[in-house]
């Protein structure tokens, strides 16, 4: 086995030289929905494939598949370099539906495959052999619905504890105190597992051992557990164990009406609350077809970009702290503090905002807010230059990050990696550019990319993103028009048409989307959140192999994980 | 020896012992305060401000808290080693102050093998760290201890080679003579490379950032002292700070002319230089990220050691020719 951690620099150069994908000279073949539809014809019956109205549903192609068609179709999509966005289960009382969602990095072409069958005869093969990133999604479906997935390599519960005997997202599920077994049982199970491991180790006198990094550990950024299989300091395998911060956000969404769910998304990723607000509100607006006022559009861009800056600043400090450099953390915190103060002015809350409403905002941006924002931009610019001098050119920092945790394009496609982690491997995919929401297409800005795919490239990309956010803010702040911040025609009570809707935004960590199934009532029927950290964390298993323990911390920091965002 | 002289000698030893222990403790508290204040100002904040004027009594309050805390001994530890390790970590610190030449008349014992004595006792620290890591029965502790052993043993090579080139020039291992040699010109002027190697090796030997891989809180939680709490933790803590002080003391005596300075020579010059070095070490800690273990080893064996050897050869050659 090779140890990329020990031969750091050469790795990066090799990637660039040998892999034609990184040269950036291959021709991009633009495909349209009709072409894909016709190419799918040999596999699927034409009646089952439909070209959808993107502006209404968020999908380009909707297809119904049967269990024996799923593997050929997915294989076809993999060959066409579609990446896996998400797999969602939904309980329709008598029937159960799995939807597989794919998209492309170079152009937006969202394909959704639906597999609907009666509950009692549900049969579905695993697609992990084609898309390795489907592993967690399929486990989650098994966890939440109890659907057995054939040929899955490791089908066990993902978010809930293993001793649970219920499947909470089934419509018939009623929570009863008795259905949760004693916590002691969990403890016993852990003990048994541990004894099993330790006895095998003792028997065979093996050199390797296991370390549970987390759920309480200074640099797992919350309650994340990494099960490390190690030989000395070298990592043989990384297995993230998630679910410690699972708060059943999706179930809560089904239990209330549309407005009642608005506060929850900002709790999912507490570092990007404003953007998650937009993600949810935007989905409902797409379902209802609500138009926004001009001022509202500007407000949304301004708060989102400030939020992105705040999130990236926190990441900047936390990443450096993972590498043992404590000081930048406090510098970045001071800048972030200024943004939080501004948000307090506009929303009253400092971390978990509830600022967006269907068709507008909760209240207007005050002149004081705009004033402070205008003063903030030049201040942050000068600070960013200082940080660049202090950190990015530091030799220790570069040695620690260069060539560490390289994500290739193939991995990104299989795992659905998005955000800065994806742009660091040379793919300029940004939801704000590829499917512009709001008024992002009216501003001049670039999508920064780097070609290394390693932790250092991810660092550079995020720093560049901060500069681009500042650029957008500089254009948006002077131009913000007067007028109403709310669309007065937006309905207070509403029932969206029955159907499926998808809307996504670019969170600081990647593509955050909400997949909404409406049954035409006042309550959402199913809400699935496509959170970027879920996919971005799963990729640590392949890229962490062969590195040192110290590098795992670096990789985790560079991927910018927010644990509740993974667990939801 | 007359009986009176023996009594005289015994009282003298007692006074010195009490003096050394009092100095070590008070000094360590002062160092903690310095670290907290310096780091705070590096990070654009104030640091401790509430206990006493400008937080001067904060470290004393912390020490009282640590002393009064419950002594937790986890299950399945090797109890004997677990209990003895912090004491063993603090012991060399006390012993090392015996030969430190603060001023012409302020040396507890001016041994004629002073320099050798300093470095042989200083390397005992690693045994205590390994005992702590091994006995804790914790994987992070053991990893930290393993890293520590590898690091300290490696960095002692360039450290001692750089000291050797100084000793070669001076021709004595006696601390007072080492300082007296620098009456006219400080050794740092003659041996700048040796000084840099000495400081780097010293920082690595005391497990300070950026060489703090045995503790590496973002990787190993707290490294070898993960399982320690209360006063036992405090002993490791005080030992670390005292070691920083001792490395600075040794550097001052060997390279920076000890008690010599403009105007009046004396202990104030010695302490001033020592605290200046401590400040630099603190400054480095709060500025740089941590190295990775393999990079640390590469740096030692591939860069520092060859330079130290070449420096020693050149020193010998020049001394032979001149």
What does the model show?
- The complex is a heterodimer of chains A (568) and B (322).
- Chain A is an alpha+beta fold.
- Chain A has helices at residues 8-18, 33-40, 54-57, 67-79, 134-145, 183-204, 249-255, 265-268, 273-288, 294-322, 327-347, 367-392, 395-401, 409-415, 420-423, 431-434, 455-479, 532-538, 540-544, 549-559, 563-567, and strands spanning 49-51, 61-64, 82-92, 95-104, 111-118, 209-213, 225-231, 234-241, 356-357, 360-361, 499-507, 510-518, 526-530.
- In chain A, helix 12 (367-392) runs antiparallel to helix 17 (455-479).
- Mean pLDDT of chain A is 83; it is low at 1-28.
- Chain B is an all-alpha fold and 322 residues long.
- Helices cover 69% and strands 0% of the residues of chain B.
- At the A-B interface, helix 10, helix 11, helix 13 and helix 20 of A face helix 6, helix 10 and helix 13 of B.
Outline the secondary-structure elements.
The complex is a heterodimer of chains A (568) and B (322).
Chain A: H1 8-18, H2 33-40, E1 49-51, H3 54-57, E2 61-64, H4 67-79, E3 82-92, E4 95-104, E5 111-118, H5 134-145, H6 183-204, E6 209-213, E7 225-231, E8 234-241, H7 249-255, H8 265-268, H9 273-288, H10 294-322, H11 327-347, E9 356-357, E10 360-361, H12 367-392, H13 395-401, H14 409-415, H15 420-423, H16 431-434, H17 455-479, E11 499-507, E12 510-518, E13 526-530, H18 532-538, H19 540-544, H20 549-559, H21 563-567
Chain B: H1 3-42, H2 58-68, H3 79-96, H4 114-122, H5 125-135, H6 139-170, H7 175-180, H8 187-190, H9 192-205, H10 217-220, H11 230-255, H12 267-285, H13 293-321
């Amino acid at each position: 086995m090779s140890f990329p951690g020990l031969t750091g620099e050469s790795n990066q150069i090799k990637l660039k030289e040998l892999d034609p994908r990184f040269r950036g000279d291959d021709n991009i073949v633009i495909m349209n929905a009709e072409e894909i539809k016709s190419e799918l014809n040999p596999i699927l019956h034409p009646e089952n494939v439909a070209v959808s109205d993107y502006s209404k549903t968020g999908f380009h192609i909707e297809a119904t598949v049967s269990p024996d068609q799923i593997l050929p179709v997915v294989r076809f999509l993999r060959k066409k370099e579609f990446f896996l966005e998400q797999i969602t289960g939904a309980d329709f009382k008598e029937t159960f539906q799995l939807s597989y969602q794919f998209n492309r990095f170079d152009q937006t072409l969202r394909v959704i495959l639906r597999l609907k069958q009666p509950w009692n005869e549900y049969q579905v093969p695993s697609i992990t052999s084609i898309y390795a990133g489907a592993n967690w999604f399929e486990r989650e479906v098994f966890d939440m619905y109890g659907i057995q997935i054939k040929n899955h390599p490791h089908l066990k519960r993902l978010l809930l504890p293993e001793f649970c005997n219920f499947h909470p997202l089934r419509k018939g599920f009623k929570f009863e105190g008795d259905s949760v077994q004693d916590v002691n049982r969990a403890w016993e199970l852990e003990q048994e597992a541990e004894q099993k491991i330790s006895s095998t180790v003792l028997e065979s006198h093996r050199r390797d051992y296991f370390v549970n990094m987390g759920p309480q550990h200074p640099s797992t950024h919350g309650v994340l557990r990494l099960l490390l299989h190690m030989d000395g300091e070298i990592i043989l395998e990384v297995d993230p164990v998630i679910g410690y911060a699972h708060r059943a956000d999706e179930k809560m969404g089904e239990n209330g009406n549309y407005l009642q769910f608005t506060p929850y998304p900002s709790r999912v990723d507490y570092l990007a609350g404003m953007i998650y607000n937009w993600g949810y509100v935007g989905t409902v607006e797409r379902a209802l077809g609500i138009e926004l006022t001009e001022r509202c559009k500007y407000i949304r861009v301004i708060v989102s970009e400030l939020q992105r800056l705040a999130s990236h600043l926190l990441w900047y400090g936390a990443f450096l702290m993972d590498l043992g450099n404590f000081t930048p953390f406090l510098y970045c915190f001071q800048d972030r503090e200024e943004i939080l103060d501004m948000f307090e002015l506009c929303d009253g809350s400092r971390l978990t905002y509830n600022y967006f409403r269907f068709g507008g905002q909760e209240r207007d941006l005050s002149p004081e807010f705009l004033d402070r924002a205008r003063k903030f931009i030049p201040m942050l610019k000068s600070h960013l230059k200082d940080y660049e001098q202090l950190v990015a050119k530091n030799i220790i920092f570069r040695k620690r990050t260069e060539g560490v945790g390289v994500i290739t394009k193939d991995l990104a496609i299989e795992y659905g990696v998005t955000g800065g982690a994806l742009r660091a491997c040379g793919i300029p995919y940004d939801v704000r550019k590829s499917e512009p929401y709001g008024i992002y297409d009216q501003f001049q800005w670039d999508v920064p990319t780097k070609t290394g795919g390693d932790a250092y490239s991810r660092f550079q990309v995020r720093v560049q993103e901060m500069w681009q956010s500042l650029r957008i803010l500089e254009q948006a702040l002077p131009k913000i028009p007067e007028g109403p911040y709310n669309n007065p025609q937006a309905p207070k009570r509403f029932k969206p048409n029955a159907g499926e809707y998808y809307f996504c935004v670019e969170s600081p960590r990647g593509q955050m989307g909400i997949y909404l199934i409406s049954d035409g009532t006042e309550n959402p029927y199913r809400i699935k959140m496509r959170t970027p950290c879920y996919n971005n964390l799963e990729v640590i298993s392949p890229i962490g192999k062969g590195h040192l323990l110290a590098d795992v911390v670096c990789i985790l920091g560079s991927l910018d994980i927010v644990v509740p965002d993974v667990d939801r | 020896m007359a009986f009176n002289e023996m009594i005289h000698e015994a009282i003298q030893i007692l006074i010195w012992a009490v003096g050394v222990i009092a100095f070590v403790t008070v000094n360590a508290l002062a160092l903690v305060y310095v670290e907290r204040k310096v780091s705070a100002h590096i990070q654009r904040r104030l640091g401790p401000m509430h206990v006493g004027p400008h937080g001067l009594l904060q470290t004393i309050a912390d020490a009282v808290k640590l002393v009064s805390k419950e002594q937790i001994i986890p299950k399945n530890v090797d109890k004997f080693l677990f209990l003895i390790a912090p004491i063993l970590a603090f012991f060399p610190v006390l012993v090392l102050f015996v030969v430190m030449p603060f001023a012409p008349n302020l040396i507890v014992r001016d041994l004629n093998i002073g320099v050798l004595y300093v470095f042989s006792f200083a390397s005992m620290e690693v045994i205590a760290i390994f005992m702590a890591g091994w006995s804790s029965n914790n994987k992070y502790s053991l990893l930290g201890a393993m890293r520590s052993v590898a690091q300290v043993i490696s960095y002692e090579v360039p450290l001692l080679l750089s000291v050797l080139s100084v000793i070669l020039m001076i021709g004595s291992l006696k601390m007072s003579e080492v300082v007296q040699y620098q009456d006219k010109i400080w050794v740092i002027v003659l041996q700048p490379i040796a000084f840099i190697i000495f400081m780097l090796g010293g920082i690595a030997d005391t497990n300070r950032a950026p060489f703090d891989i045995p503790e590496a809180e973002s990787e190993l939680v707290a490294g070898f002292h993960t399982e320690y709490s209360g006063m036992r933790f405090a002993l490791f803590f005080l030992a670390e700070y005292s070691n920083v002080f001792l490395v600075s003391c040794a550097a001052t005596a060997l390279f920076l002319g000890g008690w010599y300075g403009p105007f009046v020579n004396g202990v104030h010059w010695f302490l001033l230089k020592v605290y200046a070095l401590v400040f630099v070490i603190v400054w480095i800690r709060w500025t740089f990220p941590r190295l990775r273990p393999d990079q640390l080893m590469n740096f030692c064996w591939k860069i520092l050691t060859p330079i130290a050897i070449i420096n020693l050869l050149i020193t010998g050659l020049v001394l032979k020719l001149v």
